[in-house]
Amino acid sequence: MIKTKQITTGAMVCAIYGALLFLNQQSALMIESSASWIFAFPVLIYTVMSGVKMGALVTICMGLMTMFFGGFTTWFYSWTSLLIGFIYGAGVFKHAKNMTNFIVCFILSIIANLCIILLWSTLFGIDFYEDFRLISQYIPGISLKVFTYLMIGLLGLLQALCIHLVALMVCLRMHMDIIPPQPLSKVQSPRWIGIGSVVVWIAFFFVQNVIECPTGIVDLAQVIFFLDCTLLLYFGVVYFMSLCVKYQKKKWSFLSIFGAFVPGLNLLWMFMGELDCLLQLRKE
User: Fold this and answer.
1) What does the alpha-carbon distance between residue 46 and residue 85 come to, in Å, rounded to a whole number?
2) Which residues contact 149 (CB under 8 A, 6 or more apart)?
3) Cβ partners under 8 Å of residue 275, min gap 6
4) Is the Cα torsion angle 14, 17, 23, 29 positive or negative in sign?
């Protein structure tokens, strides 16, 4: 049975979502073009609070609001964000593991970005070759196909990280019944990943510079190489955050995450992630 409190709370989050749509229109579509994942939070928080059935009802209401108060492009950005927010909120409500929620959010984010890119390139003829030319100046040898895969994957990863971290922070601050995040001390950095990374880097060097390989092999080597770099960045973030906890400098925790996304500086994060895996620095 639907309670009056659930109805009024649902109306409130719909109003918040409507305010986001209004701000998006008044700011020349700034929200959807730079941080469309913000649309996910009203329905995410409401689903965690009120359950799956009420969350689904509010999701449908917000989707209808988008049709009436949002532009054509807003439909696709907001609808995908609403779906991700609802599924993530349902996972938290059902007490699924945090890593499971993050992986599901990551997969949905990749699918959403892929659909949006295909839609935009089909309807509006958007050409990503100019972006590719810019990136290829900093990463020589990268192909257009690999660039497209990496762009979709990186956008999905960043969106999933933003939703996951902010959702955990908000739920903890609102004292909701969720599974607490895993302590940094229990995050393992297996030595075999460090050894495997060395093998990947050596193989990548030979494929790019020494051995002539078919295009498919070169593209596969590039994808594996960048996936390995992303994994090492993750362990680098964990290492620097553990230093903040160890020396009671929690206010620097944000920089531990932000530094992984700064070009040039993130090489240090990768290097420390590799050392943490190989030498088990956090266990000393």
Assistant:
1) 10
2) 223
3) 194, 281
4) negative
Cβ-based neighbour number of residue 238 at 10 Å:
19
* pLDDT tens, residue by residue, 222-242: 888 888 888 888 888 888 888
> Given CA atoms 255, 261, 262, 265 in this order, what sign does their dihedral have?
positive
> Each residue of 104-143: pLDDT tens digit?
999 999 898 888 877 777 766 666 666 666 666 666 667 7
> Taking the model in full, what pTM does it have?
0.76
- The continuous run of DSSP H or E covering 262 comes out as none
Half-sphere exposure of 57 (CA within 13 A, CB side): 10
One-letter-per-residue 3-state SS of 209-251: HCCCCCHHHHHHHHHHHHHHHHHHHHHHHHHHHHHHHHCCCHH
Q: Which burial class, exposed, middle or buried, applies to 269 when counting CB atoms under 10 A from its CB (0-12, 13-18, 19+)?
A: buried
Count Cβ neighbours within 10 Å for each residue of 13-49 and write b for 16 or more, e otherwise: bbeebbebbeebbeeebebbeeebbbbbbbbbbbbbb
